[in-house]
Specification:
313 residues; mainly alpha; DNA polymerase, domain 1; 3-stranded antiparallel beta sheet; 13 helices; elongated
Amino acid sequence: MEIMASTEQHTTESQTVARSEEFVDKFLDAIWMERGLSKNTLGAYRADLMTLGRGLSKQDKTIDMADKADLLKFIAGRVEGGAKPRSTARQLSSFRRFFRYIMREGLRDNDPTADIEMPRIGRSLPKTLSEDEVESLLNAPNTDEPLGHRDRAMLELLYATGLRVSELINLTQSQVNFNQGVLRIIGKGDRERLIPLGEESLRWLRDFIDGPRMEILLERQTDYMFPTRRGDRMTRQAFWHIIKRYAEKAGIRKKMSPHSLRHAFATHLLNRGADLRVVQLLLGHSDLSTTQIYTHVAKERLKDLHSEHHPRG
């Protein structure tokens, strides 16, 4: 008897899922005709809606019958299972569109998603290096060799100034004022900013220009501050490989990005109490909200910050 009951229940569930699938297919046909969405987008809608439909079938409900409590229970289950806010927001967006379609078709007169708030999607925080990790990275190049000296000067400059990688590789000698100890940078949107150089980065830059740079160039001429062995301007990709190589040598296990030292510059300054608007000006952000992301990183880092080293610059 139990087996028969179980089979009947399974049949009912299968029928309910099939009925939900009919609604979902009609919805997808309608929005595809309206908007010409890509197969990937339609596939994502289908996956989201059928996951909900299969869950509802256990209560003998088809997807068009879902109420607010059903949706909240479904979302809570997903969150408990480790779903990220971005994924949950995407699913809720799929549900919204579906129920608007159901109402438009006259199949129900209320929208169960109307009072459900979208989860807050925070911007993903850049992975930042600790001050000890930065120190290891800076010490990784072999400065007895001209190219190693160049790489150390580049890394020192990045950490002291928070330059974008594109700004670093395009830096020319005329942009450096050694007397005043500042860089003149033309950033995004042709906005000019002056960035003070710390003593350490200034020293590495002076030493590099006085010898290793000439050894790299030999008889060639270029105004770019950090030329390659061929006397050309370095590419972003080449610099990215350099950073990855030194990170490996320094034993840094974190996933690095070309902007890792820019992130570290901003975070470590804020850890030391620098004013957010000052950091905004140094980074060349037009909008303070872009800089504010570093305050969150700084707070995270402060929880386990034991180092007493001071950032350079």
